[in-house]
């Protein structure tokens, strides 16, 4: 049985038994927050429980490393939509220790892509000649504190984000759920007044 078959069979049973009813909510975050966090599998259930989130409490945006790498990319667009269209009043960037993006480099990723047939050297050259900097695009970070601080700064200083929105930066320990505060968005707002 394939993974997709298992998913579809489970889903049919889930719907037939009306197990979805316990998750009913609307599209507006009850706690008025948007969270940018990592796609790490250890955080799937741990993070919501560690910060007391229930279904419907927050908009959660997941990306590799919880990195906001471009001021006009998909992650920042999602933050802007969450604020203006869905009522989010605070932003949290939550990175984590032992992240796969730590020390990630393009060469390692591209070598693996070449090994499995996902890309050829000619494709790499074509992309680079088209102005795509794969070394920058596929680069991770050296320090999770610095990465969280940089993402918070990019969001905080975005020209489309209201200046009164607090943007917080945190790091979660993926084995225990313990949070470390890196940037207190309330203090940053007070300092800018």
UniProtKB/TrEMBL annotation:
Could you say which cofactors this protein requires?
Answer: Zn(2+)
Enzyme class comes to lyase
Q: What SMART domains does UniProt report for this protein, alphabetically? A: Pro_CA
Reaction catalyzed: hydrogencarbonate + H(+) = CO2 + H2O
Tell me, what's a Pfam family for it?
Answer: Pro_CA
Which InterPro entries does the UniProt entry name for this protein? Carbonic_anhydrase (IPR001765), Carbonic_anhydrase_sf (IPR036874)
Provide the alphabetized UniProt keywords: Metal-binding, Zinc
Q: What is its EC number?
A: 4.2.1.1
- Looking at the record's lineage, which domain of life comes first? Bacteria
Q: Belongs to which family?
A: Belongs to the beta-class carbonic anhydrase family.
Query: PANTHER family per the record?
Result: CARBON DISULFIDE HYDROLASE, CARBONIC ANHYDRASE
Protein name in the entry: carbonic anhydrase
**Source organism per UniProt:** Paenibacillus chartarius
């Amino acid at each position: 049985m394939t993974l997709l078959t298992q998913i579809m069979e489970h889903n049919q049973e889930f719907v037939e038994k009306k197990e979805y009813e316990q998750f009913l909510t609307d599209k507006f975050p009850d706690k008025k927050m948007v969270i940018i966090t990592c796609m790490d599998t250890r955080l799937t259930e741990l993070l919501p429980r560690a910060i007391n989130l229930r279904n419907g409490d927050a908009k959660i945006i997941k990306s590799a490393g919880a990195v906001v790498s471009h001021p006009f990319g998909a992650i920042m667009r999602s933050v802007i939509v969450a604020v203006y269209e869905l009522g989010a009043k605070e932003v949290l960037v939550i990175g984590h220790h032992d992240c796969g993006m730590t020390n990630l480099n393009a060469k390692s990723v591209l070598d693996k892509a070449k090994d499995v047939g996902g890309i050829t050297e000619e494709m790499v050259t074509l992309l680079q000649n088209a102005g795509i900097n794969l070394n920058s695009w596929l680069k991770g970070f050296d320090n999770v504190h610095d990465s969280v601080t940089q993402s918070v700064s990019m969001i905080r200083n975005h020209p489309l984000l209201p200046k009164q929105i607090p943007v917080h930066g945190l790091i979660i320990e993926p084995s225990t759920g313990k949070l470390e505060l890196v940037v207190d968005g309330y203090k940053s707002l007070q300092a800018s007044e």
